Amino acid sequence: MKQLTASRLRYGLGLVVAAAALVAVQVVPKLEDYKLTMGGDPVEAAPGGAAGYGGSQWRLVSLAPSTSEDPLPSGTRAVTAVIGVTPADAAAGKAMAKGCEAAVRDAADRVWDRHERLPGVPDVQSVCFRVDKKYRPLPVRPGEEIRWQASFVVPAEAVGSLKVEVRLSRETGFVRLAPPPEPGQARPPAG
User: If you average pLDDT over residues 38-53, what whole number do you get?
Assistant: First the structure.
């Protein structure tokens, strides 16, 4: 009887180890993906300035009120950010071709993701890379600035303190861009 109990104990421990390994195989890649899409420290640009991130120079060209074809919820405003990015080398241009994500953050540390249904600025693309005739991503040439836009719906009181955050796909961290302060007006820090 003792031999049978020890055998069952080894079998049970083997199942526990196998289950732990299976969980690790499933969870570790998701944690890595979370770190790449949500983690990292910001690279801060001075208000109205540019900052280096992912081998490119990023700047906020404009952050302005936008229009909406659909009615917005009461107490909210639409804003559109136009972002300029210039890759320093071919590797940075290829990294941009994998895509970017934009969000805005206000002084109260609230974050809003991009709103896809706002029309934004005419003649400015909505992706951070060039596309060919079949809409496949193309790397941006080193030294060439590309301008792209992202639109957001935010509470009206948040508009004055917004900063734009851009994250490259598969890159740790993000760049945080701030518009220049209005003449004669100090801008509160966000984030």
Answer: 87
Which secondary structure element, helix H or strand E, spans residue 150, and what is its range? strand 146-155
How many separate helices (H) and strands (E) can be counted in the chain?
A: 2, 11
Give residue for tokens 């300029």. 84
Torsion 49-55-56-60 (CA) sign: negative
Q: What is the pTM of this model?
A: 0.73
20 class by beta-carbon count within 10 Å (0-12 exposed, 13-18 middle, 19+ buried):
exposed
Taking every pair of C-alpha atoms in the chain, what is the biggest distance, in angstroms? 87
Q: Pull the structure tokens for residue 26.
A: 């499933």
Residues in the chain, overall count: 191
CA proximity to 140, closest of 126, 131, 149, 129: 129
